[in-house]
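Q: Joint fold for the lines below.
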Amino acid sequence: MAKGSRQYSLRYKYPLPIHPIDDLPPLILHNPISWAYWIYKYIRSSNNVKDKIHVDIIGNRYPRILVKDDVQMLYLWDNGFFGTGQLSRSEPTWKSRTEARLDADDSIAADKSQLTLEKVTQRRRLQRLEFKKMREQLENQLLQLRRSGGSKEQEYALLEREREALRDFKAQQSFHDELDNVATDEGQINGGENEISVREEDSELIDGNGNIKQLEALELMPVEAIFLTFALPVLDIDMSSLFTRLHAYSSGDIEYKNIHNLMIQYVSYHHYRSHGWCVRSGIKFGCDYLLYKRGPPFQHAEFCIVTMDAHTTKDYTWYSSIARVCGGARKTLVLCYVERLISEEKVMALLNKRDYAGIFSSYKINEVTYKRWVPGKNRD
Amino acid sequence: MSAVYNRSEIEELVRNNLLQFHLWTEVTVATETLSWKESNIRLLTGRPPHKLSNDDEDVMTEYVLPVEMSQYKTSYLTLEFLDKIFDNLCPENTKRLTLAIINDDGTTVFYFVYKGIHKPKKN
Amino acid sequence: METTVVEGERKDFEPVTINILINKDEQSTISALVFDLEDIKKLRQIGICGILTGTLPSASQQNTFLSIPLRLMVEEVLWLHFNGYCHLRPLNGPISQNVVDTIKTRAEDLYTTSIARIEFLYELQRQYKREEHLKKLEKLGLLNKNVKEGQEDNLNSKLLESSLFVQTSNASSILQDFSMQLDDKFIINWLISNSSSWNNYLLFKSLKDQKYILAPGSRFGGKFIAYPGDPLRYHSHLTVQNAIDYYNEPIDMLSLIRGSRLGTTVKKLWVVGGVKGDIEEEPSTEVDSTSKEKNGRVSFFSIEWAAFG
Amino acid sequence: MKGTANPQKVKDEAIDSDLDDDEIVQDWSEVAKLAHTNNAAALIPKRGEKDYEPDGTDIQKLLLHQAQKAMFDTLSHSIAGSVLKSLVKAYYIPDNHNALLPHPKGNFMQTMGRMNSNGQFTLSFHEFVYLAERGTVSPYILVPNSDGSKKLEIPLSIQDLYALFKSQQDLDKFAIYAQLKRLGFIVMETKDNSYDKSSIYPPTLSHNKILRFNSTYQSIIAPFKIWRTSLFNHLVYNSLGLLTSKYTTSPQIYETLNKLVPYTKAPKTLEELRISRFNVLQSTTTNNTNLLSLTFNVWKPQTNFKKKSPGLPDYQVAVYNKNDNNVKFPTYKDFQNIFNNLDYKFEFLNYSRQDEISWEDVSFTNGVPTNTYLSNLKSKAQQKKSSDNDNNTKKKKKRALKTFPPHVQQLRRLKAGYRSFLLAIMDDGIISFVKIAEEDFGSENVWYVPTATTNNINSRASNKIKNNNHGNGDRKTRTTIVEKSKI
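A: Joint structure:
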């Protein structure tokens, strides 16, 4: 997934997964045909995504929202930096990292000088694992064949494939024996994720075709899922199913107190997203959100957002620890106080009518920044 | 008669995370269970690829407790719960428990929990 | 640990006086202040450090080094009280009126005493200055027998008198006999009901039993910070959170994450604790605090980032 | 300030330790040297870092002993008071809870004290205790003797003074007062009426007066009521309305999205400030009994301070004791109440200016414009001159925000916020300050606009698109912030 610099700027061209219609033909004022063509294209075009993105919601009391398709994962990342790879720091890169780690990518393996002793060892072990796995499969097939009374020719073909696999494996082993020497001479042994020896456990990463399985899904925060359902029609789920799913396993009927937190979290998320911020989880800094001006590849987050009910008061130690963490990371702490403007009953009534816009517009954002102030530094 | 919440999904998630993200080995779900508020709690055990603390003598087997955390739901991690985990699921004289906090933003983060008062690392 | 105190030593410990600024008319927390430097020294020997809050006259333009009064945390006062280390002196109110009344009724007595005291201090200074002056003259070889007695004195007396130092003393001579209108038990119950929580005290006590020295910790995101020895010489080890309900209050995960993150940079563990026991309600004014103290057992957990993930 | 030991080093250390107050290394041997008291403390060798924990070694015990000795020696040698020849007596007056100085002298008079109606110099109680603690004045009380024939002068101790505090809250306020004073700030209580107060708000914000702003009034009031508009809006707000509308630019999409959630718009200009104050005065429903209030006005250290007419303060401070069970940390309502009552040099008014605002030009003192007030003062010429000088030096130092590129201005606005105050937190003797500022993300848009779309015709030609040219300085693609004018 190496990206050239030109690709890099193209990749994050759109700030949201809903794109504007930006491929309309030029409109030439004195040429009516261009008008017709333009109108035709305009009518035919749509802002909608071609295929809505599929989400799986797993878990019970703590639902988690997953996107598993590789292309769709990437799409959500590239178009507004939504979601987090479960086995990555942010962008879901686990598979490519693992491929690199296990040298499954031949283009990397071919570069002999890059190989380290440990990598060679790793790959030999891995190939042994692969071979064992393949032999196991062939043996199973053979067993099946015999049980179902297959022909001698078929059985012969299978055995031949097994022998061939063994030959390949042996050839690779001797090839790597040579590489061993290269690597030993260079004696480069590095630490880090990519240099970890292949472990027995890695065998479970390989699928029937010898490829690395995708174990990673892109996980969306509940508020992201709401945004991509309610605000932008991107996910293949409707708001009330999503909302119900997020509150399933609450005991009995949904009560206001059970939805309050999600309401204020969403209103706050929508507020910042809708003014152009890239809003990502702030858990690393112990706050709710981080605001990036464009997105993580472009600059650091400047703001930490803590969302709270407007009537909230906490022990001072709570504020002071947040402020220290944000201050330490040189980010500005914003306390986002969300105020409900209508009664709980009215919110529930709107919920019954599935009037989500009605609900979300009934909360008001009030913000303050909170900064430690040092007298000695503010004297002139 | 209340439902018993299934924790195998998060056990699997933490197992994958330790095994395939942090490259631990010998990661398994322990057999001992603790029945706690409609859930059966099990720990994971495993070995990290290197020492996790300078104060450790060597790589040691870690006991990992997966707990969930959400943007909009309160946590269930009480002091009583932690005491029960130490008392029932950890071998005697276990130095520490590793808390795996599974957040609903896709991240899993790990913290050491020592029972009682513990000194910080010297270095 | 040098501040170890065994039971027996308490007999040799002359209780210190803690001034409690208490105003019955107002719902208000309480300041516990110590003005006597010898008392402050004694407190430090038993691991009660407090916070100096007054201006240091010799370096009056900074806030790092401050002077008396020493302000104590409520938990420190409770601990000192339950261990017999202190007397409590209420400055009950309306405070100023009481003080002023006391001064008025004892005006002549106080006046005479103060004059005597000032004159005594002046005389000490005069003597000292004369001796210093003579030493100086002697050194310069200017001393002769004639000068030694009356003459020189006259020459310099005006100068000397104007250079006498008028000291504003720290500790009060007026309040010595201030009538105690409230007993210690009443003040203690007032302390317990008006500030902090009883469980925080039990956390404090448990840490004190483990030889930690505690200080206010809000700037570091805790109720207390705990030092393994005198803060003058040792780094703090722990940021201790407010006590939480052992059974029903979940640990706030975001706080845990923040605390551990901070702890990593400043090398402190984030400590959360609560009290298990039968009695859950707040102690009323009639609760015998000492018996209650034995009821709860404190459960602590120390938490730090696992250095991965 | 009067010249007691004022070693730069201690000052610097104090400032540094504030910067990272994590572990204030209290090396008392340093301050002991400065306390011009000869003694063993000065001989203590400079010690190194703090240790991890006690290990029972003799060397550790020695170091601890020395550190404690340095501290206690300093404390016992550093006594408040003054030599007879420069003795300034201050007499506590119980009835007024202040102090009277028959023969006042000293630099403190520039920033502290006031004349009472009898023409006598008085100190407020905080000033009195603060000056007594540092030895600048000597505290006494005058009481009649038994037959009332004469008044006896009885010296007071520091402890006596503390017994005279009216309440716990008052003691906390004093601690915060003293903390700021020690660093050279000029601090006055907001309730102190002994000086001429300046205000950014016209003296009588009557309805008539406000009508003068009428033209702008409507346009500014409207956003305050934005949530109503929004409630109406949601009727047409339906999953971006992709069935009925087509969007040819990203900003159009954002503009649809950001109509949903109402937000509090912070006043950003002088006019908006005054109008918001007017609105607050109109709505008399606020129940101020239990709310946090402003305690101090604070001016930065300065040499040409005019006690009688100090002008607008630089900061305003509210006090909060975190260990008081009866007071909770302020909620947003408390913050809002404070914001509405603020009256200081609102620094954010400079955001949109090329030059620094002249506070005399925009404020009122004693009910008249401050400039008029100043010209009525006898010392007018001098006054003008000195304040002009002051402004000139400031102008040189500060670069106006307006001269920065728009995206930098925007980020700075967001980071600093608008109306702000200082919250002083008392934690059993440890004081911290927090700056709370009103923030307004709703009025700023930061979305990224790909340049590829610029050739296209805007399908919603009726929308006035105002290009504010807020480029975000991205290396590869120019970012433009487009703000739809609010109707």
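Q: Anything notable?
A: Residues 14 and 83 of chain B are 22 Å apart (CA to CA). The beta strands of chain B are 25-29, 34-36, 39-41, 44-47, 62-69, 97-103, 108-115.
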